[in-house]
Amino acid sequence: MSNDGGSRTFKMDKRPQRYFWAPGAYVHQCRDCGCNFCGDKRALMCADCAYAKPDPENPDYVNEDQIALDAAKEHDRLCSALRQALAERDALRDSGNALQEFLVSSPDSIRDIPDEIYVPWTKALKGGGE
C-alpha cells in the first residue's frame, strides 16, 4: 500500500493478534525487522515477525524473555552471595590475623585472649561477621 502518492509501502495483514501484533489501521515500524506495517494502535511488531516466533500454545514453547529475566535475577543473587562470602572471608582473615599475632606474642597465655580479639574471631567463624 502506498502513502501520500509516494513510494513508502506498508505491510498489511489480517491475521489475529499474537505477541505484539494485532490488525489495525495505524502505521508503525516493526521493532524486530524495521519494516513499515499497518496494525493496531499499540502494535510493536509486524505480523510476519510475530508469527515467526514460537507458538505459546505449543507445549514445547520456550519464553526467551522470561529465561533472560530469570538468568539476570540468578546473576544478581550469585553476585550478592559472592560479595557476602568475600566480606566474611575478609572478616575471618582479619580476626584470625589478630588472634595469630596475639598467640605469637604470648603463646603461654591462650586462656587470656582479650575479648576484642576473641569475640570477632568466633563471630566470623560462625558466619556472623563483626
Characterization of this structure:
The protein is mainly alpha-helical and 130 residues long. The protein has two domains: 1-62, no CATH class; 64-126. It is built from three helices and two strands, in the order ββααα. The chain has helices at residues 47-52, 64-105, 115-126; strands at residues 26-29, 36-39. It has a two-stranded antiparallel sheet. Strand 1 and strand 2 form a beta hairpin. Helix 2 (64-105) runs antiparallel to helix 3 (115-126). The chain is rod-shaped, with a radius of gyration of 32 Å. It starts with 25 loop residues before the first strand and ends with a helix. 12% of the residues are buried.
List the helices and strands and how they pair.
Elements: E1 26-29, E2 36-39, H1 47-52, H2 64-105, H3 115-126
Antiparallel strand pairs: 1-2
Helix pairs in contact: 2-3
List keywords for this structure.
130 residues; mainly alpha; two-stranded antiparallel ribbon; 2 strands; rod-shaped
Largest sheet: 2 strands, antiparallel
**Given the structure, what is the number of helices?**
3
Helix content: 40-55%
Q: How many angstroms separate the termini?
A: 71 Å
Radius of gyration: 32 Å
Overall domain count: 2
Briefly note the structural class of the backbone. Answer: mainly alpha
Unreliable sequence segments? none
> Strand-and-helix sequence, N→C?
EEHHH
Strand proportion, as a percent range, falls in 5-15%
Overall spatial form: rod-shaped
How many DSSP E strands?
A: 2
Strand order of the largest sheet: 1-2
Give the overall average pLDDT.
76
